Every structure is written in structure tokens, then in C-alpha cells.
Amino acid sequence: MPEPRLDHQQMLLKADDIRQDIIRMLEHAGSGHSAGPLGLADVFTALYFSVLNHDPEHPDWADRDILVLSNGHCVPVRYAAMAEAGYFPKEELLTLRQLGSRLQGHPERLRLPGLETTSGPLGSGLSQACGMALALKLDKNAQRRVYVVMGDGEQDEGNVWEAAMLASKYRLSNIIALTDRNNIQIDGPTETVMPLENLRAKWEAFGWHVIEVDGNDIPAIIDAYALAKAIVEKPVMILAHTIPGKGVDFMEYDFHWHGMPPNHEQAKAALKELRTLRGKIKSEAD
Amino acid sequence: MTAYLVPNIHDPNIAQEPIRKGFGAGLLKCGEMFPNVVAVCADLTDSTQMSLFKSAYPDRFFDIGVAEQNLVTVGAGLAAMARIPFVSSYAAFNPGRNWEQIRTTIAINDRPVKIIGSHAGVSVGPDGATHQMLEDIALMRVMPNMVVIAPCDSVEAEKATIAMAADSRPNYMRLAREATPIVTTAETPFVIGQAQVFREGSDITLIATGTMTYQALIAAIRLEPYGIHAEVVHVATIKPLDEKTILASVAKTGLVVTAEEGQINGGLGGAIAELLGEQLPVPLRRIGMRDHFGESGSPGELLKHFGLDSSHIATAAHQLVTKKQRG
After folding, report:
1. B127 in a domain, yes or no?
2. Mean pLDDT in chain A?
3. Does B191 fall in a domain?
4. Which of A82, A120, B175, B232 has the most CB atoms in a 10 Å sphere around its CB?
5. Residues spanned by the domain of A103
6. Hey, are the CB atoms on B77 and A127 less than 8 Å from each other?
7. Quick one: pLDDT band at residue A5, thresholds 50, 70, 90?
8. For position A221, which CATH number holds?
9. Which ipTM was obtained for this model?
10. Per-residue pLDDT for chain B (327 aa), expressed as one digit of tens each?
11. How confident is the model at residue A1, as a pLDDT?
């Protein structure tokens, strides 16, 4: 049984919930990445509440779509989205990064049902997706898709481009990848650390169909995925332009928040801002 | 005692075949036996002997180009979808280049990918040090969840390949390029995780793996005229190590020589030293590469140059036995 979809206003509220979850988790854990997960909250809301065929009650449902998180350090957003979707109780989110927790600092498939793979070391998600997509083609299964979420900084890794060539060679149109193009990595802006541009031209040159989208606009993200499903000749890369730290004013656009959690005071301020934002969504909905 | 080995081990004209050929034959059989077996290669289809499988099952074969990081991670993805992928390249690159990808996406992830490292050891010959992988046993042996296998001849390699397809764990198998004497037969048992006593003796235990098992058997024959009865234990599975069989032999003989075509540090020699150091300390000599790289040369020249042959094993054994006799 696929997860029931949410409407537009419900998804805006859900994304806000997920952002609040992320702040609480990271503050409690005392370590972890803030900017990426906050920036990806809208993408994960779209995935878990509209795009993916999945069943939180049965994470191993044989007909489910597969979601590979390649930039494993952003896993707090996935944990929060999974908890909001009903995979596990929300209280468990506060065990992030603690001894014995199913919510490891970087995702481990064997610990938590529904994760699909283990990641953290960058650049290997897309190639695992290629293997999964090849297997689906062998099965002549045209229903299931392999979704990948990857970072922009991780595209410094050669492994990414090995996978890009392979997906093109075997015309793996059952892969829909999304790049979190937030322009930051640990050492600073991506274009300073190791320039990626022209990123669109790179993916197109590797034989991919590229769609660009505002990665913080949920309806636009859903539309981009709908368009991607219509591309049957090539693998698809969605370049999602996101704001790192989105929703928390003092984190937005600042690369220093890539690998840092909020302290108690910062978390308090962030949650207040997100609650205010939530109030506005409600009033719009009314 | 050696009834299940070939009868003419001492014969200079003993039949020989590259160990990797056995892998190729085994993989072809796996294609028939296991519909979920697939093969992935990094532009070395002929030399890693995947060609037979590729011809028979073209839809289940993927050439991913010279991209070893992709090789194992695509394998991990195939394994996620209930396939049993064999992924092959030269050992220098697989696992030499892609060790982290193996660690994260196969070992921590516990996916039953079958990693094939061909052309291991100095017997690769003229290609030189870059292509003579000597550190693969050490690299793979330290990895939790990983099984490490080094068959001694092509007949055993074929059995090992089929056993790997039926095994639910991540596996690494090391293969050699050059023709190696065939010492095992269809009757020789092969079980992952079991060492085999290939020759019984009472004075010293020669523990060998891969190409060096034949050399250990020859060394045992050469020791006989000196009144030294050497037991030969073939360790085809370096991890998990068959501690029971090894300890039983060493308890009987009290002396050990190990032999491998790779670095003794962290390799089979390291594994045996760790085991005996903790459980049964006895005099030990390790034959193998001693913390240096190989170089270009003919396989025969190199094995002799680096002391990787029966005479060096026999000499080490003779010295240990003599020293013990002198008290």
C-alpha cells in the first residue's frame, strides 16, 4: 500500500515539521550537519509524501521505489521524513548518533529498515543505483524506479562520473537522480574549493537529461519528478537549486553550517523562527 | 593421506594451468546453476576469464570500462536486488584501488558481492611492481564481514567459484596469472572456511596458500631424504581461518613455516603468527614478500629472486628442525 499523498498546504507544514525535527535532533546529538538537511527538507517532503511509491508499514514492500541517499551526511532529513511518514516513532529521532541507536551518524542499511543502503563516504550512491537499475532492467520491471539524492560537493569524486557514463551506456532511464545544488561544501563555496560549473553542461555531455528546479519549491520539485518520469530514453538528473540552511535565517547560505549542529540557544532561535513560519503557512491555509 | 590429490606431485611434467582458468570454468557453471549470478568486469574480460560467461550469458554480463570504483559499487547495487554479482579486475586495482568502496557498500552493507582479484603475486612477471599485487590478502583480511579465499590450482578455483556463488557473505578471491601445477582432483574436498591437510607429517607444519601450496608440497618431498616428515596444511580460506585444523597440526609438530606469494606482514604469515602467538607459541618462519615490492622479470626468475619456492621453504624448515634437535 503506497503512502497516501498530502496536498500542497499539508506538505508545506510537513516540511516545516521536518525542519524542526532536524534542529531538535542535531541539538540533542551535539554533532552533525545542519545546512544540507535543512536545505533538502522540501525535496524529502516531496519524495516521501508525493513522489515515492513506498509503504512505511512494510519497508521491504517488493514493488517499492528505491531511494538511495548518496550524500549520507544529510541523513537527518531522511530520518525526519521517515519518522513523519510513519516508519518509526518520532521520539526515536532524538537517539541520533547515540550508542545503540538505529539512527547512525551516517546511514546504515542493516540498522534501520527502509534505508536501502549504507553511505557516507561520498560518490558511491549513483553507481549503486546503476547496479539496482540494471537489475530492474534484467527483471523487465518498468514500474519500479531508483531515485538518488546526491550532493554537489560530492561530484568532486571520480566515482560519480564513472557511474554517469555507465548509466548513459545502458540507457538507465529508470534512474532519477537529484543534485542538491546548494553551492557549499566543508571548505567553502563549491566554486572556490573545486569549480563544478558548468554542471548542467557536464551532465548533458555525459548523456543525461537535465532538469533544473527551485529545490525549495515543493510543487516545482514534484513537477520536475513528474517530467523526469516521462523521459524514457536517458537517465535524468534534476539540478535542484537549494538554499543551504533554508528556513533558519542565521544559517542560510553560510558554509560554516555545513558540518555544525546548533547549540541550545541557536536551536531555540531556529525553532522559534520555524514556528513563526509555520504560523504563516497555517494562516495562508485558512 | 594424500589419496585425494594427484599421484604425481613430484613429477616435473605435472599438468599445469593458470588458476584463473578455473574461475572462468566455475563462473560458466554458476551461470547454469544460479540464475541470479551476474558478472561485471572492468575492461579485462579475457584476462580475468569472464569471456566464457559473457558468451553464454550476454544479458547477464556488464562491461563497465576501466572504472574499478564503479565496478564494486555497481556490484553492491546488483546485490541489493537479489543478484549474486562476480566483479573482476586485476587484484592491484580490485581491491587495490577500490578498497573504501568495498568497505562501505559491500562489507558494512553486508552485500554478497564476489570480488575477484586476478594476476596477484610476483608471478605476474614482466609487468612489474605496479601490477604485482602483494598486499591484497592483508587488505581484505582486516575487513569485518569479508571472506578471503586463495585457491591453490585451477581445479580448486572452479570449486571455490561455485561455493562462493552459494555463499551469502561478501567474498574476495585471489587468482594468479601464470600456469600453476594442478595438485587437487575432483575428489579433493573444498569447503569455504576449511583448511585441508594435504600431506601428513610429524616434524614440522608447512602452512601455505594459493600458488605456494604446490611449492610447500614439493618442499615436503625434498625434506624426506633428511628424515624430516613435514605436514602440509593448505589454507584456501585465509578468513575465516580454520583455527582448529591449524592448531591441531601445530600441536602435533611444534614447528611452523608459512608460505604465500604476497606480503608476510598482514598476509597468511601474519594471520598464522597472530593465531599461534595467542594460542600456541612455537618457532615460526614466514616465507613471502618481506616488506618490499616486486619488479619486472620472468615469473620463474622472480619467484627464485624473492625466495618464493620450494627450496626456500625446505631450507627454512630444515633450519627450524635442526635448531630444535640441537635444543
Report:
1. yes
2. 95
3. no
4. B175
5. 8-285
6. yes
7. confident
8. 3.40.50.970
9. 0.95
10. 455 999 999 999 999 999 999 999 999 999 999 999 999 999 999 999 999 999 999 999 999 999 999 999 999 999 999 999 999 999 999 999 999 999 999 999 999 999 999 999 999 999 999 999 999 999 999 999 999 999 999 999 999 999 999 999 999 999 999 999 999 999 999 999 999 999 999 999 999 999 999 999 999 999 999 999 999 999 999 999 999 999 999 999 999 999 999 999 999 999 999 999 999 999 999 999 999 999 999 999 999 999 999 999 999 999 999 999 998
11. 44
Task: Give start and end residues of each alpha helix (H) in A97-217.
Answer: 125-138, 158-169, 190-193, 199-205
Domain check: are B72 and B164 in the same one? yes
Identify the bridge partners of residue A58 per DSSP, sorted by sequence position.
none
User: Residue A1 falls within a domain, yes or no?
Assistant: no
Q: Report angle CA B145, B151, B152 to the nearest 5 degrees.
A: 150
Please tell me whether residues B277 and B146 are part of one structural domain. Answer: no
Residues B148 and B206 in one domain: no
B177 and B217 inside one domain: no
Nearest CA distance, B45 vs chain A (angstrom): 17
Number of domains into which chain B is organized? 2
Task: Please choose, from the candidates B58, B20, B25, B22, the residue with its C-alpha nearest in 3D space to the C-alpha of residue B39.
Answer: B58
Q: Which domain holds residue B262?
A: 196-326
Is the CB of A132 less than 8 angstroms away from the CB of B81?
yes
Which residues fall within 8 angstroms of residue B57, CB to CB, at 6 or more apart? Answer: B31, B39
- List active site positions of B: 68
A124 part of contact set with chain B, CB < 8 Å: yes
| Backbone dihedral angles phi then psi of residue A64, each to the nearest 5 degrees | -70, 155
Do B30 and B163 belong to one domain?
yes
pLDDT tens across A253-285, in order? 998 999 999 999 999 999 999 999 888 887 665
- Nearest neighbour of B69 by CB, restricted to A120, A139, A162: A162
d(CA B134, CA B119): 10
In CATH, what number is assigned to the domain containing residue B155?
A: 3.40.50.970
Residues 6+ apart with CB under 8 A from A190: A152, A153, A183, A184, A196
Nearest CB among B80, B104, B108 relative to A132 is that of: B80
Which of B181, B213, B240 marks a domain boundary?
Answer: B181
Give the closest of A120, A130, A158 to B77, CB-based: A130
The CA distance from B231 to B229, in Å, is 7
**CB proximity B83 to A under 8 Å:** yes
pLDDT of residue A243 exceeding 70, the answer is yes
The Cα B76–Cα A129 span in angstroms is 9
Task: Single out the residue in B152, B181, B210 at which a domain terminates.
Answer: B181
- The whole-angstrom separation of Cα B96 and Cα A107 is 25
Contacts of B69 in chain A (CB under 8 A): 123-124, 127, 158-159, 162
Q: Domain count for chain A, please give it.
A: 1
CATH of the domain at B210: 3.40.50.920
Within a domain: residue A254?
yes
